[in-house]
């Protein structure tokens, strides 16, 4: 008998694992998750692996695992849609009373999940993992990530916890709220903060990747950071206005100065240096502001197209009735 109440006789925990080219680690990860989940008290578990259009053998390995273990279910995308979309698809497909998001590379230790469940049973709706330490990451990644979380928090209208990735547990009400949010650009950790409810943190040490390489090269990291900031803040737009006003102010001062010199003195400004500086500076500022505007307009364009967020090619191990469409 499954009840929806946390602490009820038996609850269902859905663990969502986004996987992109993770052939080297995925079976170890699923084994660890299965063995940890066998120790959950009064809980059944489903493990939803979302294959994000992997080009390696990830999908075949997942299919094998789904055949062997009842708890393992697989969603396979028609192409690579990105980490945040993969997580979204997993959340959409999950039927558990609580949903746990975890990376496929064992950087988030599955052993922390029982602590998260305990907090959930105490009544928290979101239990997120905060990285107290990160092993095996380059100094560059550590410092850029640190800066990113601080800038994001400074700009965002909702506080987003520092140094916190997607490793978290969410209760059913939070999951249902997330599912009702239709935006195309999914910055899941920000969306979860926006939702509210009772949230708490658990500290953990972020291990280094068990095997394989990071699927977040610099380019993807920058896009991810820009998405996060633009989806959660309109401060850049306001910054564009501030810059515009500031430079317009200096331009007016310059005009008065030039006129004064021209009319009342013989010593008027001759050089084209000043002219060039002004033209280039203002041109540059205008381009930056246009770019910022363009970013937001692009987002609006993507939203109004209302394309599906992702395309599922294969579903393995799901009950047939669980094809919950997005609103
Ligand atoms: N991932 C994904 N799609 C992508 C990139 C990454 O599903 O396009 C998954 C990846 O398999 C992993 C998680 O997202 O489970 C985090 O990626 P990764 O470990 O490469 O990022 P890092 O920990 O280096 O930031
Ligand atoms: Mg990783």
TrEMBL record:
SUPFAM superfamilies: Nucleotide-diphospho-sugar transferases
One Pfam short name: Glycos_transf_2
Localization of this protein: Membrane
Bilayer topology: Multi-pass membrane protein
GO molecular function, one term: glycosyltransferase activity
Enzyme class: transferase
Protein name in the entry: Glycosyltransferase family 2 protein
Keywords: Glycosyltransferase, Membrane, Transferase, Transmembrane, Transmembrane helix
Location of the Glycosyltransferase 2-like domain: 14-177
Record lineage: Bacteria, Pseudomonadati, Pseudomonadota, Alphaproteobacteria, Rhodobacterales
Superkingdom: Bacteria
EC number: 2.4.-.-
Transmembrane segments: 239-260, 272-297
UniProt-listed InterPro entries: Glyco_trans_2-like, Glycosyltransferase_2, Nucleotide-diphossugar_trans
